[in-house]
Amino acid sequence: MLTDFRARLPLHLAVYGLYLLIALMVTFPLVTHLSTHFAGFADGDVYQAAHQLWRLGLAVPLPAALNLYVLLTLALNGWAMWMLARSLIHAVAPAAHLPALVAGAVYMLYPTMQGHLGAGHIGLIAQWGVPLYTLGLFRLYDSQHSRPLVRIAAAAGLGLVVLLVMGALPGAPLNTPAESDAGEIVRSSADLLAAVTPSYLHPVFGQFAYTRQVLGDNLTEGAGYFGIAAALLSLIAVIRVRAARGWLVVAAVAYLLSLGGLLNVFGQPVRFAFEGYQVYITLPFALAADLPLIDLVRTPGRFNLLTALAAAVLAGYGAAWLSIRLPRLPSAVKGALTLALIAGIAFEYQTFTPFPLAPAAIPPQVRDLAGRAILDLPYDHPVTISYSLYLQTAHERPLIAGQGAGSSTQDPAKLALLQATLDPALLDAVGADVIIVHRAQDDGTLEARARAVLGDPTYADAQLTIFERDGAPPAPAFQTAQGRVNPDEHTAYLYAPASGWTAARLTLPGERDTSLSLNGRVIRTFAPDAGDDAVTLPVWLPAPGFHTLRLHSVDACPQAFDSALRCPPVGTLALETGLRESSAPAPIRFENGIALSAWIVDFPLQRAVQAALRWDFGRPITRNDVRFVHVTDSAGVLILQADRPIGAAAGGTSWQETVSLYRARLPAGEYRVYAGWYRLADDSTLTNYALMDGAPDGSTGNAALIAVLTVGGAAP
Predict the structure, then answer these.
(1) What are the strands, taking DSSP E only, across 44-109?
(2) What is the DSSP letter of 395?
């Protein structure tokens, strides 16, 4: 075996060298910028890819390392397909080397492959393992060695079971929700006409207007051009070669899945009116999107990488059949014709002209940055995220934003407040010494704010402005910032220097079940048509630091692929810029796991008693559990009360509320405010929940004294 491999090594090296030469030509002018630019668009993932290769670029500069990886991988894709096609074709045509070269060229140059390369998806272009794995399976099958195949099938079955279990778990990462927006579905899928649509950046075919209509600006997920040459060769193969027909089925299934869940033509989902409704044509991917293995593809358009495999094999079979029909031609002529055919395929498949390059130069001022950590702004722009990772390969400092998977892993409240205020105290609190404003992603607002707060930059060029925080900052103060706003949610962020009460001003249209969450934990739910169009709700902040308040729908909108069918908005959320300390020295605990963890009592105009309360539930409560707030006079006579069941709540949740008790006139004197719980069974049996611990002096067995008020004097 080893002797046979050594004898064939020159052939393998020659084939690989040919594909490497093709890769150099298709990606031109990359070869002339190996150390100064990256292959791909600057607004793609190429800088993030460079960060992933950072530790591997030891022998050569990082740009050269990534570019060599790209070129060598493309050539390896071609060689791997040549190996597979040669083995398959040998059964129908003994001279399989030259036809297999055509198959390798189709595979390595398929427009889907080039589209992902332009987007910087260097992991996705490493497809050489697929042909080699397929070749291995065919050889095991042909050798009639059943034991290895059984082991492979058993391993694959075990993996499928694991994926099924993981996908069934609540919150499992594989359990991703289906797209609900037609624009996103179209963008992540191929157009029905993608197979007959070359790139709109092609030097010749790009002049056809329909190419832009079909592909839009989506050469990444939408490219799926089969090609005239490959189509003719495939047609010959299907008609003349029986063994090729199964690969046509593979190509058809892969292409059908690449179209996604909705049929779209010319970049728009196909729809028609039916009894007053807009009806869309759904495709099989809509049913299979969340199945194990299928959902790992993430976007339907990537199934065209499998289409490329089938197209390459079909083209190889077709080229082999033609080769058999030309038996008398000299080998040199056949070789020349094969190279001419490959050149035609390469020209037809050309996706970019010239190939896009992203600048790789980093200013020395970035390399020389000192300090503990760096904050890149705007933190939520995908290009900033990607480029900041690349800059880290030079300055080697920690990133405040903590990038990962195309977005920041950091608390969004922290990043939003840092960006909105650039408060030196908050910057100091998170350890940010250096702020880099990425000018291309900034409308000028961030740089102007940085100059006003931090002074003149230490470095500036056309792309970056660098500021360094200097001096001892003041103590951090209460800060707020606006977050995400859309029909399904309204988010606000705040920084509190201490625990205490703030207030959220809500407007609720009253058309949807809506919840208010603090740091991901629901603290209040509002039913539709409750008459609470405008609400001011006290919110207890249990600890100093960054917090997120989110007003959101309880149930997600039903899937609607037309903007006219969207759900009504949940409402709006605004924060008051103040903080009040709680009256709670420690939580007051009742039976059934109920705790009053924070409260504050107001006495406006000495008429209305307002109590802001935060309840924590260690165990579930039901609709039979009733919260009460009572006001008594100095003799202990009940004069005001508010008893209310708040509804069912799960253990581990919280409830925040404002209770108002009003009376036109209260005689002068002292009044006491109590709070507690009891259970009112369906048969009207009442059971008090006794106080367990933490009750202030003056409390009773089941009622906690939370305030003492005075009428005719100052309210305490």
Answers:
(1) none
(2) H
